[in-house]
UniProtKB/TrEMBL annotation:
Protein name per the record: Aspartyl/glutamyl-tRNA(Asn/Gln) amidotransferase subunit B
An annotated GO BP: translation
Gene (UniProt): gatB
Function statement: Allows the formation of correctly charged Asn-tRNA(Asn) or Gln-tRNA(Gln) through the transamidation of misacylated Asp-tRNA(Asn) or Glu-tRNA(Gln) in organisms which lack either or both of asparaginyl-tRNA or glutaminyl-tRNA synthetases. The reaction takes place in the presence of glutamine and ATP through an activated phospho-Asp-tRNA(Asn) or phospho-Glu-tRNA(Gln).
Reaction catalysed by this enzyme: L-glutamyl-tRNA(Gln) + L-glutamine + ATP + H2O = L-glutaminyl-tRNA(Gln) + L-glutamate + ADP + phosphate + H(+); L-aspartyl-tRNA(Asn) + L-glutamine + ATP + H2O = L-asparaginyl-tRNA(Asn) + L-glutamate + ADP + phosphate + 2 H(+)
Length: 479
């Protein structure tokens, strides 16, 4: 490989507070445009902001969970730029004295563990939202502005440029989302914009320690988009360098449909924002006792939960990793196990049939119409031999759509597994008699022929025959 990628991510996370960062307007998502606004978040003359204490609380909580240093003295600053969705013509943010410095996120990709360091975490307000009449601003006849999001509290988490691939960037974001969800400070729903990512990418010759000129891909709203956008941009920059060109420092957008990045504007530097201290907000002083009080609130983190799933429940590392990526999934899984299901069986179903249903309908685990106790009941019927795993796969969708219990579905559909060897013996003999060629093949040493006979018996019983009993009876009768 001739070049290596150097990637740093800036992640913006909307905090799960009921009101905005400097006023009492609601932060609820999906309201009618411009209904959650007031003179303060609209930046009208003569108003004064007041910091929402919950924002500071959540910022410290996130900083502690991500191993940051909490600064005892921090302040807000004005970041000046002019854009229609910013009614004050400046954003209230933090510049040289943020609430958190340092920290790290541990990731693992292809069996290799890496520690990605953080530069800082700071508090700021969100901007409004441009609503285009077309798909993009270039293809629109008009653009409206919705200021509901203006003033919604954000944490900006700035990572060091230590990521080396789109795959690593995705793993970093997934771990970051998991930590913040476990803390309860944000729901991190990318589809609603409550977690957004800007990716800074440059390439350099392998072995070089000099950073290349970077471009920034703005506001990517999916993990796959981050990975694909970074991979595309790295190839684009490498081709320019190979052709003797130079990289222009710029902001680019990710076009999902085309799978490309496109130029948006020439990138500003910090000096272009003309930062200066916010005169309407007093500096923030955090007492060490308060920091320790917040530290005491920290819940079990994803890495600790993954380790517990492996050590206490005996799950493989692969299962434990996937189950703990989202708090809702881990919570649901633990509830299923508490209701009596075997941990490995529950994991197989959570990562298999259950995940398939969630993905089909775009749901999270906590939104599933089948509650944990109902899934545990279904798995219990398999464990007792009442139904087979194959039958259970037809029962789950029925439970999902009807809201009925597993037992009710099994009874109504007549799906109870046939385990009576006497009844099965007659069916086995019938299938053997009807398939002399397969019987001859089996007796001639072609052991795979028994699979066809098993299939015929399952077809005859509409999948209700106990597979273990069928194999045992077939083997005995074919001797």
């Amino acid at each position: 490989m001739k070049y290596e990628s150097v990637i740093g991510l800036e992640v913006h996370v909307e905090l799960k507070t009921k009101t905005k960062i400097f006023c009492g307007c609601s932060t609820e998502f999906g309201a009618e445009p411009n209904t959650h606004v007031c003179p303060i978040c609209l930046g009208l003359p003569g108003v004064l902001p007041v910091l929402n204490k919950e924002v500071l609380h959540f910022a410290i909580k996130a900083g502690l969970a991500l191993h940051c240093d909490i600064l005892p003295f921090s302040k807000f600053d004005r970041k000046n730029y002019y854009y229609p969705d910013l009614p004050k013509n400046f954003q209230t943010s933090q510049f040289d004295l943020p609430i958190c410095k340092g920290g790290y996120v541990d990731i693992e990709v292809n069996g290799e563990a890496r520690r990605i360091h953080l530069t800082r975490i700071h508090m700021e307000e969100d901007a409004g939202k441009l609503v285009h009449s077309g798909a993009t601003i270039d293809t629109s006849d008009s653009t409206c502005v919705d200021y509901n999001r203006t003033g919604v509290p954000l944490l900006e988490i700035v990572g060091e440029p230590e990521l080396r691939s789109g795959e690593e960037a995705r793993a970093y974001l997934e771990k970051l989302r998991a930590v913040l969800q476990y803390l309860g400070v944000s729901d991190c729903r990318l589809e609603e914009g409550s977690m957004r990512c800007d990716a800074n990418i440059s390439v350099r010759p392998v072995g070089s320690t000099t950073l290349g000129t970077k471009t920034e891909i703005k506001n990517i709203n999916s993990f796959s988009g981050v990975q694909k956008g970074i991979e595309y941009e790295a190839v684009r920059q490498a081709q320019i360098l190979d052709e003797g060109g130079t990289i222009q420092q710029a902001t680019r957008g990710w076009e999902e449909a085309k799978g490309i990045t496109v130029l948006q504007r020439i990138k500003e530097g910090d000096s272009d924002y003309r930062y200066f201290p916010e005169p309407d907000l007093i500096p923030i002083e955090v007492a060490p006792a308060y920091i320790e009080e917040v530290r005491g609130e920290l819940p079990e983190m994803p890495d600790a939960r993954r380790k517990r799933f492996m050590e206490e429940l005996g799950l493989p590392e692969y299962d434990a990793n996937l189950l703990t990526l989202e708090k809702q999934t881990a919570d649901y899984f633990e509830a299923v196990v508490r209701d009596g299901a075997d941990a490995k069986t529950a994991s197989n179903w959570m990562l298999g049939e259950f995940a398939k249903k969630l993905n089909e309908e775009g749901l999270r685990a906590d939104q599933a119409p089948v509650q944990p106790d109902r899934l545990a009941e279904l798995l219990g019927l398999i464990a007792k031999g009442t139904i087979s795993g194959k039958i259970a796969k037809t029962v789950l969708p029925e439970m999902w759509s009807s809201g009925k219990t597993a037992a009710a579905v099994v009874k109504e559909k007549g799906l109870v597994q046939i385990t009576d060897t006497g009844a099965l013996e007659e069916i086995v003999k019938k299938i053997i008699a009807a398939n002399p060629q397969s019987v001859a093949d089996y007796r001639a040493g072609k052991k795979k022929a028994i699979g066809f006979l098993v299939g015929q018996i399952m077809k005859e019983t509409k999948g209700r025959a106990n597979p273990g009993a069928v194999n045992e009876l077939l083997t005995k009768n074919l001797q």
